[in-house]
Task: structure prediction
Amino acid sequence: NAGVTQTPKFQVLKTGQSMTLQCAQDMNHEYMSWYRQDPGMGLRLIHYSVGAGITDQGEVPNGYNVSRSTTEDFPLRLLSAAPSQTSVYFCASSYVGYGGSSYEQYFGPGTRLTVT
Amino acid sequence: QQQVKQSPQSLIVQKGGIPIINCAYENTAFDYFPWYQQFPGKGPALLIAIRPDVSEKKEGRFTISFNKSAKQFSLHIMDSQPGDSATYFCAAAVKAAGNKLTFGGGTRVLVKP
Result:
C-alpha cells in the first residue's frame, strides 16, 4: 500500500495563477480531508469529504475548491492564488466516524506551496 | 480564535528528561483527544489518543493525562530520546460529528544527546 500520496511536493505560483494539488489514497477510506499548516497555527481544516460525491467546508475554505468523483482521489483547487495561501498542505484519509466513533487519520507527505 | 490552545511552542530537554506538552480546550462537546507526531518533511502520524472517561493512558514511553473539569490534557514523554525530536500536535474532535479534528498550534521538541 502506498497510503496517502500527494503531488507535487513543491510548487511556486504567481499571484492570480490557479493550480490543483493532487491527493490519492489506496486504503479504500471513505473520509478524506485537506489541511493547511502554518507556523504556530497547527493544522486547519480546509475541506473534507465523507464519500464520493459528498464534500463540505472546513474552518478555512475561502479560495479553495474540492470535488470527489472517486473514493481514491480528492484534489484541491486554488482558484486565484494569493500570498496568504503560502503554506504546507496536507491531505488525510480515514474510515468514516459516525455516531460515537473516530478513526485514525493517515496523512500524506505534504505539498509546500509558495505564492509570490 | 483557536479552540485548542497548546503550550509551549518549543521545548529543549536532555536525553532522559521528560518533556511535557499542555493543551486546553474550550468546546465541552469534544470527546476524543488524539496526539500526532510530525518529523521534518513528513505528514503527522497518530501517536496516542484518549477519551474523557479516563484520566490517564500510557503507550510505551508516551503518557496522556486528562483533566475533564479543567478542560486540559497533556502529553508526557518519559525517558526521552533524540529520536523523539519532532513536532507534536494535540487535537480534539466530537465523535458524533465524525472525523473533523481541531488541532493545537504544535510544540517543537528537541531532545539533546
User: Anything to note?
Assistant: The mean pLDDT of chain B is 93. The interface with chain A takes residues 2, 4, 6, 9, 32, 34, 36, 41-46, 49, 89, 93, 95-96, 98-106 of chain B (CB under 8 Å). The longest strand of chain B covers residues 86-92. The radius of gyration of chain B is 13 Å.
